[in-house]
Amino acid sequence: MTTQLVEIQSISKQFRLPGGWISGKPRYVSALADVSMEIAVGEVFGLVGESGCGKTTLGRIILHLIEPTSGQVLFDGIDLTTQKGAALRSLRKQLQVVFQNPLSSLSPRLKVEQIVAEPLVTHHSLPGNQMRKRVVELLEQVGLGKQHLDRFPHEMSGGQCQRVAVARALALDPKLIILDEPTSSLDVSVQAQIINLLEDLKNLHGLTYLFISHDLNIVQHISDRIGVMYLGKLVELGTSENIFNKPLHPYTKALFGAIPLAVVDRRRELTILEGNVPSPVNPPSGCRFHTRCHLVQDICKSDQPEFRQLEPGRFVACHFVSKSDL
Amino acid sequence: MTTLLEVKDLFLEFKTSQGILKALNGITFDVNSGEVFGLVGETGCGKSVTGLSILRLLPRSASIRRGEVIFNGVDLLKISQDEIESVRGSKIAMIFQDPSSSLNPVFTIGSQIERVVRQHIKVTRQEAAEQTKEVLSAVGLPDVKRIMDSYPHELSGGMQQRVMIAMALSCKPLLLIADEPTTSLDVTIQAQILKLLRNLQKNFNVSVILITHNLGVIAQTCDHLAVLYGGRVAESGPTETIFNQALHPYTNGLMNAIPRPGGRGRKMATIPGTVPSNPGALTGCAFAKRCKFAFDRCVVESPPLYRVDDNHHVACFLVENQSK
Questions:
Q1: What percent of chain B has pLDDT over 70?
Q2: Residue of B191, B214, B239 with shortest CB distance to A271
Q3: Does the complex come out with an ipTM higher than 0.85?
Q4: What is the pTM (predicted TM-score) of this model?
């Protein structure tokens, strides 16, 4: 059995909405509701879902940037919320993140050298005279070089900036990198370069990735396992092959049916999911997907489906999916 | 099928603090009436600028150097300011990527669309309201009465984009230019909007120019398309031909760089290098630096748009002996 690097145990997160101080009860957005999953050492876990489904919130909770309302996250068997001071700092080194838009996640006032060196300086992990050597080494790993040391982010293309962000994430030899839509702002040809780079780096350093994206084709390409989220809930989880070849949850089916494929021979009617994602302030009762589901029955409106295991490693939260569907 | 719009050899420059930026360097394509025509390419290839120059909605720093935009027999680049204003909205309408920034936040949806109608057509208030109601329900919005009284922020992104499409259609234009209309939307909402755009030609007999960087969107919705690179058409033709028998190395590179089902674990094909920032300043083919087939001639001479089949045009020396 592989060991788990991250264990997420029934995490919920509610954000308080502004207002409600004087007038009545405060209102909450339920961003995550009872989410449990694990990320194994060395795997790429893909998290997909539409905007507002809580995928980024989950990433931030794992990074310990925000605290969950309930539940706990174990990183390497340790609950980060119980750690303080130096112990927490040394754990933080092992968790890094790459965000969607490199131009907003890289400081416009710092040169590439300073950006990549910043985590090394903060964590005092290298004496000053070795700093430049290490930065160049990191830049070379991401396909950049010495000539980029003195550039500012605005002097580089989006793809190059994203490479700098990856170099910064690698600086402290992390165990886990959370990739939050790392290729969404990039062009197709550059996107493929970054995906290849991420795969090479993973093999080189034995990294574990949590890959968050709404681009299902990319997620499918890079992930070992995939979790599908809808309105703060995990609705389906399984291996990349299983989820893509045989999606079970009606939402997963609709989501994959809605991707326009870049092939003309198999031009098909895109699956049309009517309506919009409901507001997480007042999530629907029972199954959160019932307002848009074509299989909906009375039970869906009243009872929350359990997130059950159908076969080892394959989980689905739907009343109407059974073992015979496998 | 008749040709509705012909863009011929369009050249456009921007004046910037760093000098002249040649954004369009000879764009040529035709749009037939009643079809969905795709303009696809990466950042900076000139696809949005092409859309804007059809309606002459360009910033002051831009100037069109050469070329013609012939719409229904009239060159839109030659007519007066008053005349182009009468084309905008009533003959050719445009929608943009981010609907929330295209709608005025302080007016209700109803009043915004009514104003557009009254600007272009001589109608009474009631008639304008009636027409607004009609067009809003035609784009599949539920509960039209309530939508008309809503402000933009009360609607979701997908609904806002439907409102934009309704507004664009309110004066029954012949051509709709949609610039990345689904880029800011989720996939399930994108599928709804694409279906709507596909059905527009049936229901309104309007042609659509769909500008996007997403080849999947193009494959699912367009009849013809042009692939742009460096402000020029690299390849144009029927969607099926381009997807199945692309001839330009750039088109092929682009097709191969899309992740496809079943490709897991395999290296993704990439195009080395990046898009040139000022393609017009280069001599020769703008793609030559990234092209694995490039030879001496590519660097010195810019390839013309060869016609290889009825509708299929390719700007590459490799097809020179196949051209007709």
A1: 98
A2: B191
A3: no
A4: 0.88
